[in-house]
Predict the structure.
Amino acid sequence: MKAIEVIESLKRRFPNEPEYIQAVSQVLPTIEETYNQHPEFEKSNLIERLCIPDRVYEFRVTWTDDRGQVHTNMGYRIQHNNAIGPYKGGLRFHSSVNLGILKFLAFEQTFKNSLTTLPMGGAKGGSDFSPRGKSNAEVMRFCQAFMTELWRNIGPDVDVPAGDIGVGGREVGYLFGMYKKLTHEYSGTFTGKGLEFGGSLIRPEATGYGNVYFLQEMLATKGIDIKGKTVCVSGSGNVAQYTVDKLIDLGAKVVTLSDSNGYIYDPDGIDREKWNYVMELKNIERGRIREYAEKYNVKYVEGGRPWGEKCDIALPSATQNEIDGDDARKLVANGVIAVGEGANMPSTPEAIKVFQDARILYSPGKASNAGGVSVSGLEMSQNSERLSWTREEVDQKLHSIMKNIHAACVQYGTEKDGYVNYVKGANVAGFMKVAKAMMAQGIL
Ligand code: NDP
Ligand code: 2IT
């Protein structure tokens, strides 16, 4: 395999999917050497079979708003690869959603799920519908309409969706309810469910907690403690919220949060009381982060991103490509020692190069945000055995999975000079398991 040639060919075949091409372009050069040590991979064209999703469902979703006006949105589900387990991955509801973005996410998910060591293949789905500004009743009708199409193609041993941007506990509840009604079956086809109906403790916390656990492992390789460190977090949704929660517990100082309109800078740090306010603001009132600045009288930068603020650690937790080359240079110039991705692909290729050239600790999302899908995997196990585990039990399993992923990155990503290239480590470790499973199962 020549990575460049495969990438060029995919670019020609899928010219309108830049995020998908970006994700593939980040992975292939890092696995090229390992791949080429296995001539049997090349003969069976494993690389194209791994990069191109198994199948894509695309459908129209029709729903009615509170005034009686009918709307259409697009719905998608990408079933990328099921070599090591049922298709698994979240649903994203956001106005920016398109096929190329979901294909990048499904591709990444395949490697991420492999890294978790749990039996889950890779998938992603969603819609260009945005729940922002919609009433509960509108969100419910949309979720029900979405499910009237998707239900045929998912199932507990087929494909298990969950949340992502714009899909949290409320949406999963509506989606699951409609799925149950259509199938006449009570099964663990979704994860991220409410605790009353099969959800797992720690699932809401898992991505944020997992990212901080992974960060602690990275810092430990340099003998650095997280306590007292200043941290810039972006986003203010599920991942950002529980990242901050854990950081407060560990004695770090979080100075920023953001949403798609701007960011806040709180030099005193977000304490427990302010965190409680953010939880209420975002999850109950569904307000904007600007309101935090008004309440606590701190700086708000409309249209800005937090990366120009001085910090020791940056944890991007909003969306793809939210740190560009200039942002990365600002972070490095301000002395950042670690960047841990809570979001999927938040750093552009140029930004990643800046971090790696500066030899700072940098972990790609597929490794450091794998805690969310890991606890989804644990939710599937609990649903299968019709039992629920305690908070401590799930948290302890999450913690040990994150440590194992870190160890795998170190094993496969340590370079000659001792620098750990977490991108390479995560890609090679994730790839080998899927590749071996695909080879063993024949040409499909
Ligand atoms: P939420 O919808 O809960 O929160 C998303 C946050 O990011 C909001 O603050 C949102 O602001 C902001 N955001 C969304 N789109 C943009 C944009 N285009 N530009 C700037 N800000 C934006 O989603 P999650 O917290 O669940 O997801 C955040 C990231 O983490 C995503 O990349 C997701 O793929 C990833 N992730 C999520 C996991 C999970 O379990 N939930 C697991 C692993 C990764 P606004 O309110 O203005 O839209
Ligand atoms: O990107 C992700 O890993 C998620 N949004 C979570 C997927 C899941 O199935 O829990």
Observations:
- The chain has 17 helices and twelve strands.
- Residues 94, 96, 132, 163-166, 168, 207, 235-240, 259-261, 317-319, 342-344, 369, 372 surround NDP (ligand 1) (CB under 6 Å).
